[in-house]
Design goal:
about 280 residues; about 25% helix; single chain; globular; alpha/beta; about 25% strand; 8 helices; five-stranded mixed sheet
């Protein structure tokens, strides 16, 4: 009898834990394509003389009363001379193709401050913006001082971020392994930018949304670093890739930031891939 009751309690606890796990849907939304990008510029030690079209993506996460974007795309022209685009649709309009109006987005998590990831924060009028505290501090202060590094950062994006902060619409995430929504945790350490982050989305199964902390599936399969804040951070980036695989439970459930393959691996209609 004791063994039966113990087994019943263990089973009941397992069922309860399963039921309490927040389930989210995840969609990748391609808002543009950047053609003929040299792989070796993005992947440290990647194949020379190979060029690929890269997907410009935001990820839509829905569940638990939240409508969340990971990253926000761009709509300013600052860097387009260096990165011409094809098939561009402004990120708020691209999100709208899923049936989510811009004012229905409750939150935007910014993986890092580069122009093509933070540049659309002013397109979603009711969203709270979540960003690492150190990322916010660096790119609103030290990056613009002598010796600072603001490569890939649009000054107008920074101004928009500061304005949103003055309006009470910026939430600063303080460090690694922080739960920001039930079942969604932010992780740091990959050093793509000063304090870039990626997300683990809980569920059955879980997924890791890497953004540019992993550019391509090639990074994962060949253990090659994504381009990072400095050359000294390459080892940290590779170490974080291993951590991402562990957090997701499989390399197949780590979603890279710019790989077109995510729109072939997962069921896709138009610009939108259903990851989960």
């Amino acid at each position: 009898m004791f063994r039966f009751l113990a087994a019943l309690c263990a089973f009941s606890f397992g069922v309860l834990s399963f039921a309490q796990t927040q389930e989210y849907s995840i969609q990748a939304i391609r808002y543009a394509t950047s053609p003929d990008v040299p792989v070796a510029e993005l992947v440290v030690g990647g194949p020379q003389n190979e060029k690929v079209d890269i997907a410009m993506v935001v990820w839509l996460i829905r569940g638990g009363g939240h409508t969340i974007l990971l990253d926000s795309g761009f709509h300013r022209n600052t860097f387009l001379k260096d990165f011409p685009m094809r098939d561009y649709l402004r990120p708020d309009e691209a999100v709208n193709t899923t049936g989510v109006a811009p004012d229905q987005v409750t939150d935007i998590v910014i993986s890092h401050a580069h122009w093509d990831h933070m540049g659309g924060i002013d397109l979603f009028p009711k969203a709270t913006v979540w960003i690492q505290k150190d990322e916010y501090r660096y790119y609103t202060t030290d990056a613009w001082q002598p010796g600072g590094d603001h490569g890939g950062i649009d000054p107008e994006d920074v101004q928009a971020l500061v304005k949103l902060n003055t309006e009470g619409r910026v939430h600063l995430i303080d460090g690694d392994n922080v739960e920001i929504f039930p079942g969604i945790r932010a992780y740091t350490g990959s050093r793509h930018t000063y304090a870039s982050e990626y997300l683990r989305v809980d569920g059955h199964p879980p997924f890791v949304l890497a953004s540019d902390n992993v550019y391509f599936y090639l990074n994962l399969s060949s253990h090659l670093a994504s381009a990072t804040f400095s050359d000294a951070d390459h080892a940290a980036n590779i170490a974080q890739q291993a951590r991402m695989i562990e957090l997701a439970g499989s390399a197949d459930r780590v979603v890279p930031g710019h790989d077109m393959l995510q729109f072939k691996k997962f069921p896709t209609e138009g610009r939108v891939a259903k990851i989960k």
